[in-house]
Amino acid sequence: MITQMKKYTFLVFHRDYEPFLTRLRDLGVVHITQKAAGLIEDDEQLQAALQHEDELRRLLKQGAPDQLLAERANIEQNISDAQTAAQQAAVWGDFDPARIQQLKEAGYTLRFFACGTSAYQEEWGIKVSEKEGKTYFAVVETSESRDLEISNLLEKATEIPQPEKSAAQYMQEVEHLKGLLAAANARIEAWQLANIEEIKAQLKEARQNIDWQRVMLSTDKLAEGALCLFEGFCPIDKEPELNAMLQSAQVYYEETDPEKEDATPIKLRNNWFTKLFEPLTGMYGWPNYNEFDPTPILAPFYLLFFALCVGDCGYGLALILIGWLIAKEKLRIEMFEGLGPIIMVLGIGCTVVGYLSGTFFGIDIYQAEWFPAWAKAPMFKAWFGDGSGTWMGYDIMMVLALFIGVFHICLAMTVKAICYTKQNGFHATASTWGWLLLIVGGIVTAILASTSVLGPETTQIILIVIAAISALGIYIFNTPGRNPLINIGSGLWDTYQMATGILGDVLSYLRLYALGMAGAMLGAAFNELGMTVLGDNPGVGAIVGFVLIVAFGHVLNLLMACLGAFVHPLRLTFVEYFKNVGYEGSGKKYNPFKK
User: Fold this and answer.
1) Is 440 helix (H, G, I), strand (E, B) or coil?
2) How far apart are CA 235 and CA 10, in angstroms?
């Protein structure tokens, strides 16, 4: 639900302005209306404050000054280069570069070559080693042999630059660099211990300073600067606290209900379950003040969609455990910080739906002989006598996905009709009610007729009445006061859009069935692969292989299932549902001026 707001207009004498702002900030309940970004963001003082905040955020994120990080990065690069050089020098064995230099001074020059092992000929030079299908050899060149046909050798082999050090010397250098790296990390850790908390405090102060400046810039100065005028909004439950402070402050203020054109901030008020899903609403956009809060409907349907996409009670139990560990801070994953409760709730949904569909870590527990018969009774497959899990030849999960899609879209149209009528009146929403009556009324009538609740003649009469009333709303009264011919044309265009859009929207819900089926099939495939490795008489190696395959497979399948279960239900909500419910989501979140 959207918390009701009160609009306040403050008129303060310039001498009392800053003390009053301080008291207002200490109270922390008023969302102050700010001017458009283009009117205040160009202020030089505000720009400097924003730049300072960015620098503090960057410093806090990277965890150390650029100089210390660059020093560590340079050492890490030197270690990588030395390790690469050691690998390259290792093929030449343990040698002393100083002795090679002494040979050179005595008139003997060593040149190093490599070629394919099959192409190597002993007369080319001194064979040193073989590695990965290549032979490495050296050629001794003297002052008397400089006219030899080295060029012929270069056509058949590749000359390699002489290593500056032996592999052992490079590895000694690596060990030395690792010591330097440890010292660099120690300096970074010492810097963090000495400065991180201070930077956090500075960042908080910078944020408050920015908020203060924006409020100052959003205040109108009247009577040659003698009076300061600004507006704000306060939740109705905080109104007594604010009024008590205002009366003691002895400032002039007006308290009114927000107008439709006001940029009233949004504060949602939901129960503990629905509140878990408010971040999903925020991902699309907060509702306008005159709209409705979509979260109470989004929450149960997103939970259902997620559970259908995962579709495995074993994975649900794993999610419950992961969510509990995150909530208890026993498992720390930065991107999931604070999401432990919602992961647990999603896990519970997956467990229930997975159990009803009869899948446990890719195992069809409905067909398993070891699973108790009484525990199979609630499963979808038990609803049908043959246990096939089909209805009229179609998979029950596919039928369920389509049924959920029809219900979800009909619910969206119902909410749209009610909300539009509340905002604009019935006369302006006749077309919306016409479509709602036609689609929902037609579906309900068809269900009653198919179950023999309604007879053929009664069904015919009801359908004619529904069609006639709907046609009036859709084609004649869709826009009151407009030319009827234009209304008819508009209604025909609307019919084309509804006919093509509704069908596509309903079919989109098949993704719930497809993702759940794909996850179950992939889990079963890993189980089968593991059982193949295990064999009939497994040894230790076979058991280890089975455990590795099954564990890796199900972890991978769980990750992919959760990714799909996060994205596709969001799409069904943001596209299919929000489109049919007419949700805009262009509101601004309530952000009170406070410390």
Assistant:
1) helix
2) 16
Of 592, 594, 473, residue with least CA distance to 8: 592
9 by Cβ neighbours in 10 Å (0-12 / 13-18 / 19+) ranks as middle
Write down the domain spans for the chain. Answer: 5-65+187-256, 93-162, 272-278+294-388+509-581, 400-508
Name residues whose C-beta falls within 8 Å of residue 351's C-beta, 6 or more positions apart in sequence.
313, 316, 317, 320
Q: Output DSSP code: residue 481.
A: T
Measured CA to CA, the distance from residue 588 to residue 106 in angstroms comes to 83
Q: What is the mean pLDDT of residues 66-95?
A: 90
Token pair recorded at residue 465: 């009445």
Distance (Å, whole) CA 595 – CA 121? 81
Q: How many other C-beta atoms lie within 10 A of the C-beta of residue 420? A: 18
pLDDT bin (cut points 50, 70, 90) of residue 497 is low
Question: What crossing angle do the helices spanning 430-450 and 396-424 adopt, rounded to 10°?
Answer: 150
The two most distant CA atoms of the chain are separated, in Å, by 117
pLDDT (tens digit, 9 = 90+) per residue, 547-575? 899 999 999 999 999 999 999 999 999 98
Q: Residue 106: which H helix or E strand, with range?
A: none
Nearest Cα neighbor of 556 from 512, 514, 517, 525 is 525
- For the chain, the residue count is 595
- The two structure tokens encoding residue 60: 């806090």
In this structure, how many other beta carbons lie within 10 angstroms of the beta carbon of residue 126?
11
Rounded (10°) CA dihedral 99, 101, 107, 109: 100
Q: Which tokens in the block code for residue 343?
A: 């992961």
Of 366, 298, 307, 356, the residue nearest 513 (C-alpha): 307
What is the pLDDT, as a whole number, of residue 540? 85
Q: State the helix-helix crossing angle for 430-450 and 456-471, rounded to 10 degrees.
A: 170
Residue 122 has pLDDT above 50, yes or no: yes
Q: Residue written as tokens 């810039």?
A: 217
Question: Distance between CA 159 and CA 178 in Å, rounded?
Answer: 32
> Tokens in use for 100?
């090679």
> DSSP states of 9-36 as a string?
EEEEEHHHHHHHHHHHHHHT--EEPPPP
What CA–CA distance (Å, rounded) separates 312 from 523?
9
> Phi/psi of residue 331, each to 5°?
-130, 120
Own/partner long-range contacts of 373-382 (Cβ < 8 Å, ≥24 apart): 379/355, 380/356
> Each residue of 446-465: pLDDT tens digit?
888 877 778 888 888 888 88
Position 147 scores a pLDDT of 46
End-to-end CA, the chain: 26
- Count CB neighbours of 318 within 10 A: 20
DSSP 521-575: HHHHHHHHHHHHHH-SS--HHHHHHHHHHHHHHHHHHHHHHHHHHHHHHHHIIII
CA-CA distance, 49 to 210, in Å (whole number)? 6
Asked if 360 contacts 314 with a C-beta cutoff of 8 angstroms, the reply is yes
Cα–Cα distance for residue pair 492/477, rounded to 1 Å: 13
Which of 578, 529, 572, 579 is closest to 309 using CA atoms? 572
